[in-house]
Each structure stands twice: as structure tokens, then as C-alpha cells.
């Protein structure tokens, strides 16, 4: 049953926070890890769980994985993600995560290979992220 699978994914605070962050667009695993203040291994395991259950998709960019919400979510997933977005607007944890992400995106970046634009992009230069 799709709904049970979705709720199993949503019943963990870390996974909810990850989904909240990805609601704003795709992110490198290093961005998610930094914002959550969690070890990379923990974040990667949660992302793998979400990916295995169809809530997120990933693409490799050099040595890094970049994640986003599922491009073609089921009706049930879309409804639950809309609910999560509504609820997260009033929860201080999600607000802090969003603020940390904004600061991170404006501030110093991580390793040069991380989150660099695709070399196919015209005139694109690798931007270090830390």
C-alpha cells in the first residue's frame, strides 16, 4: 500500500527535515548534512531510505550525490508533501533549517568538486562549496 510506505518515511524527524529542505529544490548531500548538523553517514542512510521508497531522486555529480524530491510523485505523496510544507511553516525546527540553508548558500562553500555546475553548462566554473 503506497500510503503506508509514505507514512513510514514520514515518521522520522530527520527524514521530515530532509524533505523540508528538498522542498526548496535540489541539494547536495553536503548541504543537507551541514544544515542538519548530523554525520554524513546518518544523512546518507536516511536519503537512501527515502530514495528506495520513491520519495526522492538522486544524481551523481563528480564525487557527490545531489538529491531532489521525486519528479513524478504519486497523488498520495503529493498530498502529504503539501501537508508537510504547510505544517513546516509553523514549526521552528524547519524555520531554523531554512535559515541555516540560506546562510550556507550565501557563505563559504565546501570542497571544489562539490555541487559544481555541470561541465556541459556553457561557461560554467566549478564553485567551491566549503
Question: Can you describe this structure?
Answer:
With 130 residues, the chain is mainly alpha-helical. The protein has a single domain, classed as Arc Repressor Mutant, subunit A (Orthogonal Bundle), CATH 1.10.10.10. 53% of the residues lie in helices and 11% in strands. The chain is built from six helices and three strands; from the N terminus they run H-H-E-H-H-E-E-H-H. The chain has helices at 2-10, 13-22, 29-36, 40-52, 75-88, 92-106; strands at 27-28, 56-61, 64-69. A hairpin with a 2-residue loop joins strand 2 (56-61) and strand 3. The N and C termini lie far apart (41 Å). Residues 116-130 have low confidence and may be disordered.
Key terms:
single chain; 130 residues; mainly alpha; Arc Repressor Mutant, subunit A; three-stranded antiparallel beta sheet; 6 helices; globular
Task: Provide a quick synopsis of the model.
By secondary structure, the chain is mostly helical.
CATH topology: Arc Repressor Mutant, subunit A
Task: Give the C-level CATH assignment.
Answer: Mainly Alpha
How many distinct folded domains?
1
Our Rg estimate from Cα atoms comes to 15 Å
CATH superfamily membership, which one? Winged helix-like DNA-binding domain superfamily/Winged helix DNA-binding domain
* Overall average residue pLDDT: 82
Number of β-strand runs: 3
The low-confidence runs, each spanning 5 or more residues with pLDDT under 50, are 116-130
Proportion in β-strands: 5-15%
Amino acid at each position: 500500500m503506497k500510503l503506508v510506505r509514505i507514512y513510514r518515511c514520514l515518521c522520522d524527524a530527520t527524514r521530515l527535515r530532509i524533505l523540508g529542505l528538498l522542498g526548496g529544490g535540489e541539494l547536495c548531500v553536503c548541504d543537507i548534512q551541514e544544515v542538519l548538523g548530523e554525520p554524513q553517514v546518518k544523512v546518507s542512510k536516511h536519503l537512501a531510505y527515502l530514495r528506495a521508497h520513491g520519495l526522492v531522486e538522486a544524481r551523481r555529480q563528480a564525487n557527490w550525490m545531489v538529491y531532489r524530491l521525486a519528479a513524478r510523485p504519486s497523488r498520495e505523496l503529493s498530498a502529504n508533501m503539501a501537508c508537510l510544507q504547510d505544517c513546516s511553516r509553523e514549526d521552528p525546527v524547519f524555520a531554523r533549517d531554512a535559515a541555516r540553508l540560506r546562510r550556507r548558500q550565501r557563505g563559504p562553500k565546501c570542497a571544489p568538486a562539490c555541487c559544481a555546475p555541470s561541465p556541459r553548462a556553457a561557461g560554467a566554473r566549478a564553485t567551491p562549496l566549503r
